[in-house]
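Work Package 3 (structural annotation) set out to generate three-dimensional models for the target panel prioritized at the project kickoff. During this period the team completed the workflow that converts sequence records into discrete structure tokens, so that structures can be stored uniformly alongside our sequence database. As a representative example, we reproduce one entry of 66 residues exactly as it appears in the project archive.
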Amino acid sequence: MKIELNGENTEVSDGASIQALVDQLELTGRRIAVEVNEEIVPRSEHDSHQLSPGDRVEVVHAIGGG
């Protein structure tokens, strides 16, 4: 199915979870925030939150500094 990931059309497996997308992007273990359709999805829900066709997903890397 197609979703919009950071403004780009992206193909993911039907019924993929956010965690499956994170794994596909090789971002597992990284400090990231994920927003689906303008709502932040807590990390605790990444395994259970299933993506739907046409979802708009933003993945943002947390960068430390000061």
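The mean pLDDT is 94.
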